[in-house]
Design goal:
By secondary structure, this protein is α/β, with parallel strands linked by helices. It has helices at about 15-25, 75-85, 95-105, 120-140, 145-150, 205-215, 230-240, 255-260, 280-285, 300-305, 320-330, 330-350, 350-365, and strands spanning about 1-5, 35-40, 45-50, 55-60, 65, 65-70, 85-90, 110-115, 140-145, 195, 220-225, 245-250, 265, 290-295, 310-315. The relative contact order is 0.12.
């Protein structure tokens, strides 16, 4: 069985979707003849082996509006699709959809992992919408990442009979084990620690978490880089909370795990449906950490359940964030309950083995 996975980017580009594609490609080695077709973030194309997976990267002029601009990608898809039994697309990826409709073989089975709708580019959607519907009509199987996405998506409702929810996952062998001290943060042992992990961009809602920390007796660790870092640091200064908040920037894998280990709870304060799932929640839950997230119409509140593994609050509500954080930090019994439930849920629902088993079964059903 030959499968071609198709997405806009791939490792070493860091992102939740890219990690999932890598997990599928590497996890199904030995069962499936898997290749990956993607784009360079910028520069000339390449063909390489990454952890024994053949990865073809089309040349690109750069990334604009979140999408690589590549004139060679459609031709590569036309060529590579001839040799595959199954084409496994990861959406949103307009270039992939248009390339398929224009040039790819229509005799192949098509699987679509549907990560999210396109949220911000309304002008693009006016042009792209009819092509997306033509593509989804042709798809043999659509794999939304959560039941919430099936209900809330503007585009999936006509195709519900093709939809099978396959949640994203993490490798539980990578997370959850104890890490020796990796960072000297200068915190005293009795200080509470709230953790955020992610890109510092428009939809993460960090400005609301920074406001919330004014009303919380804890330190806030912010792990990640992004275009909003300078603006967020200015906000910290303007609120006078420099002593409570630490920007760690980009950290190593071991340093990240250490942050999960030492924090008291994890917060994902995202404000837009561009936050499709929030894999970082699962990583924190693998360390038995309660989660405070926001009530987005995506997989975010599906991963961590309100009242079971933490609290879910309205987006853009600093006071609600502060109240939820304080309730967990100040109630040891509640925190212990959420901690146990978080670990139980991530093991039951979001293991990499479970995701790979589901996808492999779907591939076999289509052949």
């Amino acid at each position: 069985m030959k499968v071609l996975q198709i997405n806009k980017l791939y490792y070493p580009w860091i992102g939740g979707v890219e990690k999932v594609i890598q997990d599928i490609a590497e996890g199904l080695q030995g069962k499936v003849d898997m290749e990956v077709l993607t784009c360079q973030p910028i520069g000339r194309g390449s063909e390489q082996l990454i952890n024994k997976v053949k990865v073809i990267k089309a040349s690109s002029l750069g990334i604009y509006w979140g999408m690589p601009v590549s004139f060679t990608f459609p031709f590569l898809l036309a060529w590579k699709s001839q040799k595959a039994d199954i084409l496994h697309f990861h959406l949103p990826f307009p270039l992939g959809v248009l390339s398929y409709l224009l040039m790819a073989s229509k005799k192949k089975k098509v699987v679509v992992t549907y990560h999210s709708d396109i949220v911000r580019q309304e002008r693009l959607m006016r042009f792209y919408k009819p092509f997306l519907h033509r593509f989804l009509k042709r798809a043999d199987k659509i794999l939304p990442t959560s039941p919430n996405l099936v209900k809330s998506s503007k585009y999936l409702s006509p195709y519900k009979d093709k939809c099978t929810v396959v949640p994203l996952s993490i490798d539980l062998n990578e997370f959850g084990h104890l890490i020796k001290k990796k960072l000297d943060l200068g915190f005293s042992p009795d200080e509470k620690i709230v953790l955020f992990v992610g890109r510092l961009n428009y939809y993460k809602g960090l400005e609301y978490l920074i406001e919330a920390i004014q009303e919380v007796e804890s330190k806030l660790l912010i792990v990640g880089e992004g275009e909003m870092r300078e603006r967020l640091e200015q906000k910290v200064k303007s609120l006078g909370v420099e002593q409570k908040i630490v920007f760690l920037g980009k950290v190593s894998g071991e340093e990240l795990k250490y942050c999960y280990q030492i924090c008291d709870l994890f917060v994902l304060p995202s404000i837009e449906p561009s936050e499709a799932f929030g894999i970082v929640q699962m990583e924190a839950m693998a360390y038995g950490k309660p989660v405070v997230n926001t009530n987005l119409p995506t997989g975010v509140p599906y991963v961590s359940i309100n009242g079971e593994t933490g609290f879910t609050v309205p987006p853009r509500d600093a006071k609600a964030l502060a109240k939820a954080i304080n309730k967990i930090l100040n109630d040891k019994e509640l925190a212990t309950k959420f901690s146990k439930n978080a670990l139980k849920r991530v093991k039951k629902k979001f293991s990499k083995e479970k995701m790979l088993e589901s996808i492999y079964q779907i591939y076999n059903e289509l052949m």
